[in-house]
Specification:
259 residues, mainly beta, Neuraminidase, five-stranded mixed beta sheet, four-stranded antiparallel beta sheet, 1 helix, 10% helix
């Protein structure tokens, strides 16, 4: 090997050595942003009990704190149903409307709000079924994936969800929209409730079979799996989570997780 060839060979070996050292250093160094931060841990909810309710295709849940009763609607009947925690129907109140998917009572329980999916309406009634007023929430691109749930936050605002396309949450001060946000935490969203004890929102997803805990600004806090077919209604009270199954006409009771 002549002198020129030896210098060339030594140069190549040096370049290979430097490249190897840089590669090793790069692998051992923590690059900011190369590893995504961990998301909320997915856990399963602990079931407490299951009971049948005599309502065909129940959708949504609401609580009357004055007499400690529950309310639901059916997308197959123009009525809302009042029942107790044993599943016994106490009253069936016919109302004007169709394709009912969500229900919530006002803070003093003198007004009942329901959402009508196909018509994309939020409608207010008196407890006896007397119609008060309606206003449109037309954000859906398909009436079969439209309004699904409604709740009231700690400021008295109505909070309405659109199932998907777009998967969205909207806030209304009376009938005026004051906030909207697109969500992407599940395949769809089926109902929503506000938990005043923790100032959080809880959403149930039928297609994903999950329960989502969201912050006041609708950031994802935690995801919980549930084995409930066609979960269409959710209510959080104290240390329990209540979920109704549309296809089974059952109410599932879960232990509310502490985190």
């Amino acid at each position: 090997m002549n002198l020129s060839s030896e210098h060339t060979y030594s140069g190549i070996r040096f370049i290979i050595l430097v490249a190897s050292l840089l590669l090793i250093a790069g692998c051992n160094r923590d690059e900011p942003g190369t590893i995504p931060p961990p998301g909320p841990v997915v856990k399963g909810l602990e079931i407490v009990s299951t009971l049948s309710i005599s309502v065909s295709e129940p959708s949504a849940l609401a609580f009357n704190h004055i007499d400690s009763t529950l309310y639901t609607v059916s997308d197959g009947n123009a009525a809302y149903y009042k029942f107790n925690f044993n599943g016994m129907i106490l009253a069936t109140i016919p109302i004007s409307g169709s394709d009912l998917e969500g229900i919530v009572l006002s803070q003093n329980c003198d007004t009942i709000y329901v959402v009508q999916e196909a018509k994309q309406l939020v409608t207010a009634f008196r407890p006896d079924g007397t119609l008060l007023n309606s206003f449109p929430v037309k954000v859906a691109t398909s009436i079969s994936s439209s309004l699904e749930g409604i709740t009231i936050d700690n400021h008295g605002n109505l909070v309405v969800i659109n199932e998907k396309d777009p998967m969205m949450v909207l806030k209304f001060n009376k009938t005026s929209e004051i906030f909207r946000k697109t969500l992407s935490y599940s395949l769809d969203i089926s109902d929503i409730c506000y938990d005043k004890l923790t100032n959080c929102f809880w959403i149930v997803s039928d297609e994903s079979r999950t329960v989502l805990k969201l912050s006041e600004t609708f950031e994802l806090i935690a995801t919980y799996t549930i084995n409930v077919p066609k979960a269409e209604g959710i209510l959080v009270l104290g240390d329990k989570i209540y979920i109704v199954s549309d296809s089974e006409s059952k109410m599932y009771v879960f232990k509310k997780p502490s985190n």
